[in-house]
Amino acid sequence: MQTKYLIIGNSAGGIGAAEAIRQMDKKGALTIVSDEPYPAYSRPLISKYLTGERTLEEILFRPPDFYDQNNIIFLPGKEVTHVELDHQTARLEDGEQIAWEKLLFAVGGKPIFPKMKGSGKRGVFTFTNLDDAKAIDRFLDNARKAVVIGGGLIGISVTEALIKRGVDVIVVEMKERILNTILDQQASLMAEEVLKQAGVEIIAGHTVVKISGRKAVKEVILDNGVAIPCDLVVVAIGVSPRPELALDAKLEINRGIVVDRHMATNHPGVYACGDVAEAYDFVYGENRPTPIWPNAYVGGRIAGFNMAGVTAEYPGGTAINSLNYFGIDIASAGMPTAPNDDGYETISKQEGNIYQKVILKNDLIMGMIFVGNIEKSGVIFGLMRDRVNVESFKQSLLADDFGLAFFPRPLWQERLTPSPDITLQPALPIEAEEETFAGE
Amino acid sequence: MKRVYVKEEVCIGCGLCQVYCQVEQSQSKDIIKAFKREAPRPLPRVHVERNVEICFPIQCRHCTEPWCVYSCLTGAMHKDPVSGMVSVDMEKCIGCWTCIVACPYGALSRDLNSKTIIKCDLCPGREIPACVLNCPNEALVLGVDEKEE
């Protein structure tokens, strides 16, 4: 078959690209290939699927008629096994060839699986896609006690779901504290506290070296020799880009597929986005993987515009996370802790269950953490994304009532003033106003 | 595309926009009943910001490039291609608050009862939103961007 646009991958990045392409080009043949058998669904919601709070229909990322409505040829449950960049073709597992004009790699990441004895036993799972959630769900009738390896976002997400399903959970985290890549020590402690209150045991500073049992999991052995009996193990130590197809096609790859600010790879007409790509991070000022949902969508959107021939530039992304496991609201972005060198400044405040912190360098925001009260985190993140120099108002950044009114006048005026194209409508006369509210 | 704009120089920070927004979102649509009898009390979709002598209300800007929509994990946030309005599907929203982190205006709020996001919906069924209609100083005005229609 022939298609103008071929998108490999059907998650946030692929959908972002498809929507941008259709915004610009309503007709050009657009094909999405997915190795999963489902329409696009929200991966962060697989934990709600596992708890039984949501069905597949309820975690769909777009309405069921999305592909028809947008005139997209959707090939679910098909794996692309080989891509020929010079010939502009892709081959599917079943041998079918697809000729394309523009190609997007939006294949995502894969769970990192450490070398561990016994990892092939029954009862060992990962937790990144719907099939993982289904597999764990089917197994739960036989499970009382789980060990979750990895105290990152995926680990804590599956921990919450398992606790809701009535399973005892022990989290084993290699580093000194959970969520260490996105939170600082104080915020991690606060998160650990709510986990412990929910009955989760946390073992930090250790790794699992072996999973024992005959055919099924019976216990895990830690690096200090301690054995923990359990009947379920979830390996959640992170995801790494899935660049095999691109490697095979000889694209430039560092940790992920390297893309420029147009989300273009080093091969003309070929783009990449999402967890498989390594795109610009505005905090670090360099390309690096930021495997989070919103960046995948925005990167995909930029790729889509460029694929459709409309030049668009990726503003850059950084790691942003908003979590509310076990009832605690946490938002973080950029650097969780200031690096140990000169020039970094940290402003923080703690009052009871509220903790807020901003990291600055040369009066630019490099990182932020909000625990408890997160309502103004977006205003801070906006300043961070726009690389605004906050020198004149940095002492107000963590004020209780902080908002645009604390910006220098030109800055908030620029954000609130209507553009000249806008017609302002006069309000109704006072009589009409009274009529509206009297006696209703 | 309709948006509510503020003439900051005439805003007196009285907060009536907030009050009438709450009335509009109430069951009774009656100011006394809404504040005295409705539980939970309806939450406002507009907030007045105050910093010494500067004050102005902030509500959803229904952005041309809406970060909240692009960041939404569930597909609950949506920008209508025809009206340009940004709205949230309460059935789909799980209250992850990623849109709060994404919104540079701080225009979104948490409804901790329903665990969903709440935001300005431009008062469906009304020609002029309640905040504009009830601003005593005509500091709030409705703007129409013809280019975005």
Question: How would you portray this structure in words?
Answer:
The complex is a heterodimer of chains A (440) and B (149). In chain A, the strands form six sheets. In chain A, strands 1, 2, 3, 4, 5, 6 and 18 form a seven-stranded mixed sheet that branches. Chain A has a five-stranded parallel sheet with strand order 8-15-9-10-11, with helices on one face. Chain A is of the alpha/beta class and 440 residues long. Chain A has helices spanning 12-24, 46-51, 66-69, 130-139, 153-164, 185-197, 244-248, 293-307, 377-385, 409-416, 430-437; strands spanning 2-8, 30-33, 72-75, 80-84, 89-92, 97-105, 109-111, 124-125, 145-149, 168-173, 201-204, 208-212, 219-222, 227-229, 232-235, 239-241, 257-258, 270-272, 277-281, 286-288, 320-323, 330-334, 344-351, 354-361, 364-371, 422-425. Chain A is globular. The termini of chain A are far apart. Chain A has three domains: 2-107 and 245-307, FAD/NAD(P)-binding domain (3-Layer(bba) Sandwich); 111-236, 3-Layer(bba) Sandwich (FAD/NAD(P)-binding domain), CATH 3.50.50.60; 329-416, 2-Layer Sandwich (Enolase-like, domain 1). Chain B folds into two domains: 1-59 and 123-149, Alpha-Beta Plaits, CATH 3.30.70.20; 62-119, Alpha-Beta Plaits, CATH 3.30.70. Chain B is built from five helices and eight strands. In chain B, the strands form four sheets. A two-stranded antiparallel ribbon of chain B has the order 1-8. Chain B has a two-stranded antiparallel ribbon with strand order 2-3. Chain B has a two-stranded antiparallel ribbon with strand order 4-5. The radius of gyration of chain B is 15 Å and the shape is globular. The N and C termini of chain B lie close together (6 Å). At the A-B interface, helix 8, strand 21, helix 9, helix 10 and strand 26 of A face strand 1, strand 2, strand 3, helix 3 and helix 4 of B.
